[in-house]
Amino acid sequence: xxxxxxxxxxxxxxxxxxxxxxxxxxxxxxxxxxxxxxxxxxxxxxxxxxxxxxxxxxxxxxxxxxxxxxxxxxxxxxxxxxxxxxxxxxxxxxxxxxxxxxxxxxxxxxxxxxxxxxxxxxxxxxxxxxxxxxxxxxxxxxxxxxxxxxxxxxxxxxxxxxxxxxxxxxxxxxxxxxxxxxxxxxxxxxxxxxxxxxxxxxxxxxxxxxxxxxxxxxxxxxxxxxxxxxxxxxxxxxxxxxxxxxxxxxxxxxxxxxxxxxxxxxxxxxxxxxxxxxxxxxxxxxxxxxxxxxxxxxxxxxxxxxxxxxxxxxxxxxxxxxxxxxxxxxxxxxxxxxxxxxxxxxxxxxxxxxxxxxxxxxxxxxxxxxxxxxxxxxxxxxxxxxxxxxxxxxxxxxxxxxxxxxxxxxxxxxxxxxxxxxxxxxxxxxxxxxxxxxxxxxxxxxxxxxxxxxxxxxxxxxxxxxxxxx
Amino acid sequence: xxxxxxxxxxxxxxxxxxxxxxxxxxxxxxxxxxxxxxxxxxxxxxxxxxxxxxxxxxxxxxxxxxxxxxxxxxxxxxxxxxxxxxxxx
Lengths: 470, 89
Description:
The structure holds two protein chains of two kinds.
Chain A: H1 3-11, H2 17-35, E1 38-41, H3 43-58, E2 70-74, H4 101-108, E3 112-117, H5 151-159, E4 164-169, H6 175-181, E5 184-187, E6 207-212, H7 215-225, E7 255-259, H8 268-283, E8 287-291, H9 296-314, H10 333-344, H11 347-360, H12 366-386, E9 392-396, H13 412-417, H14 423-428, E10 432-439, E11 445-452, H15 457-469
Parallel strand pairs in A: 2-3, 2-4, 7-8, 7-9
Antiparallel strand pairs in A: 1-3, 4-6, 5-6, 5-10, 9-11, 10-11
Chain B: H1 11-28, H2 66-70, E1 76-77, E2 80-81
Antiparallel strand pairs in B: 1-2
């Protein structure tokens, strides 16, 4: 099932949105024990949305571009009246009083939200093992991680228990799980999709983006969500082009850059798949050029200063006063804050809050935070210079394929370093995506990363779509 | 540092966290290799827009409302969030 096939079936009266929603919920609930990808199902909301689509069709009205499509939402994105936990004990019972703008636009377009997906706590992690409600298992190999932080959203697409999913990406949290699970995942230009209602992790780096089985489906979902929203002052005014009409399969003559730095430290089995993908693009008529992104080696250090600094500030709001749990052990107000946060946050959140507090502390600000902001400018300049020579850039998403559950839990630095090829895109704020490129000899999926300049989602989608067809 | 961050960490947590932080900080130290003397810091991704473009029209809007705002509070009463006593009698 795709977005377009569902719409066609509905308009031809072959089925109803309510029937699709009932089937999707039944299948998702039955399959969920295998992967733990869903944290909450939303049958009432889904059936109400589906019935409204059916009513529109019966009345001869346009039911919208996402009519009847079963959609899963990462549990860091707020849904009014539907529990939103951020995969944290802190928000275990939190019922948001409003919807994220992306959620409102999806439902206005006829989309049917069937549930909320598991993820790393507050979107911090690369393996989905930091969830307070247990890890997600990779549907392709159940003893392996699905990647993170949007592991649940990638897993439901790979499992076929949703047609579309929303993820969030701060340092690779959409693209890396998409690569690990063999699905498509898109991080749009920073500001392309409103962040209103996305729980803030690192505000200058946070993005909402789609996951799907096909490139076309992701383009359809981005189309619906993109565009200025006055509830997010960082959302961009730039006009939104028609993404889908550009997908004609013809990429002849496009200039594609291959960054030399993205092939240093790459596992052989992953590298072989990426080399084959580059050969395919060459056969499709693209001009392949080697380029340089010289500051790549500094990007992970730069990223972990900026994201932890912003996180330590953003997570200060979880204090046991307004909408979180509160520790029973508390005596004074100060003790209440500390006990609540100690009980509510998992180890990774605490680690990042501590690191962020450290790099922002008096005397260290210039050496860490200010330095990182300057290095961020250099990373962004690398891309700006590269896009003077090429239309898009391609390379790997992750240096390794999906690893085994528990394999890296005790080595956070090595886990952080595996974000090397994804953090640069977030730092620069440019659109990037992962499209399935093949499998390693062990049968593990490998994603090809396609990167474009600010607001150039169209050429990015065109290359990914043509590659997917080839 | 834990006090600054409002976290009550156990001795055990402090030991393992110190190790983890040392690991990532020694990687971060690599940044000092770069000469950034004349580089403008980048705090945000910026695009061209009119200076007042992000300002909305000055029209009154219905706020969240007292009941909705308090709905998730761990302890509330008489229209307020309740916290442990701050000022002694």
